[in-house]
Amino acid sequence: MKPFIPKLVYFEPQALEYPLGKELKEKFEQMGLEIRETTSHNQIRNLPGENDVEKYRIAKSTLVVGLRKTLKFETSKPSAEYAIPLATGCMGHCHYCYLQTTLGSKPYIRVYVNLEDIFEQAQKYIKEREPEITRFEAACTSDIVGIDYLTHSLKKTIEFIGETEYGRLRFVTKFPHVDHLLDAKHNGKTTFRFSINSRYVIKNFEPGTGSFDERIEAAKKVAYAGYPFGFIVAPIYMHEDWEEGYEELFIRLKDALGELANENMTFELIQHRFTKPAKKVILQRYPNTKLEMDEEKRKYKWGKYGIGKYVYQKEEAASIEETISGYIKKYFPNGEIQYFT
């Protein structure tokens, strides 16, 4: 797939006081992109579009360059201790994505240029936990790989973490644009994960992202560049003939990886879930979606922030975990299943 090119770019004035901000302004001017100014990356009020659906789609192709002023990192479990804030928003159109509601009325993509401040705060968190390892997740609020060929923020972060003793970096992507990251001095301290799924899920629910084959080709490049790597199977969705669909996924993955299939790699398993607010937003933005969100068929699970989620019934979840874990053990005997949730 072609790399993401924003149709519209906004800059906070303060962003131009930082080297990365100046660099991006020059780059976007040379690319001939329309550039506007905004007082805050949280207040883009004049987006074009005749209706909400049109404005949403335009927002997904809009990039806002600003500062990350709140430097208290959110916790990120089970995959890491902290989320490191490099960007917010994504150009993909995954129907089920939790960012549909967490980003609410701000689905545009924001990148932060005050990397020095972000790294300084990350160093403080590492210091507080020494000699424990501190893991940072860079993809909690964005698919950072999809935009990093423009900003190189992720590459700089990989090299920053690579120089620490107790820091580790993790992120997941559905995009194949990894070439600029292959020569980064990661020192084995960054784990690269790719999101994979059955044909049915990718075809019906993941428009605007890399194909399965593109993701796996990128995974192979990353593995040969020496990065620890793995896969997130998410959301695991009980579509018609889901058992066969997911077994085919792991067969295709094994075949595509070739000799790499025998390497140590991680797997993270996440069943499909949704909230009531998410369901409302998803149906507004993707009215023809095939995504099943029937509360009557699901189990209500309380969240730690007071917002409950609808997950599969206990027996269904157990079947999903047993089935998917069995496929991984069969086709990837050296693979490590880190969790199922």
Main sheet summary: 7 strands, parallel
Radius of gyration: 20 Å
| Helix amount | 25-40%
Estimate the mean pLDDT confidence: 94
Computed structural class = alpha/beta
Q: Could you spell the SSE succession in H and E letters? A: EHEHEEEHEHEHHEEHHEHEHEEHE
Strand order within the widest beta sheet: 4-7-8-9-10-11-14
Uncertain residue segments: none
User: End-to-end distance, in Å?
Assistant: 31 Å
How many alpha or pi helices? 11
Topology:
Blueprint: E1 8-11, H1 19-30, E2 34-37, H2 52-59, E3 62-66, E4 82-83, E5 87-88, H3 99-102, E6 109-112, H4 115-129, E7 134-137, H5 145-151, H6 153-162, E8 167-173, E9 190-196, H7 199-205, H8 212-224, E10 229-236, H9 242-257, E11 266-271, H10 276-285, E12 299-301, E13 309-311, H11 314-331, E14 336-340
Helix pairs in contact: 9-11
Describe the structure concisely for a colleague.
The chain has 341 residues and is α/β, with parallel strands linked by helices. 35% of the residues lie in helices and 19% in strands.
Describe the fold and architecture.
Helix content is 35%, strand content 19%. With 341 residues, the protein is α/β, with parallel strands linked by helices. It has a seven-stranded parallel beta sheet, covered by helices on one side. Strands 2-1-3-6-5 form a five-stranded mixed beta sheet, with helices on one face. It has a two-stranded antiparallel ribbon with strand order 12-13. Helix 9 (242-257) packs parallel to helix 11. It is globular, with a radius of gyration of 20 Å. The mean pLDDT is 94. It comes from Gottfriedia luciferensis. InterPro entries: rSAM (IPR007197), SPL (IPR049539), SPL_Bacilli (IPR034560), SPL_firmicutes (IPR023897). Residues 76-304 form the Radical SAM core domain.
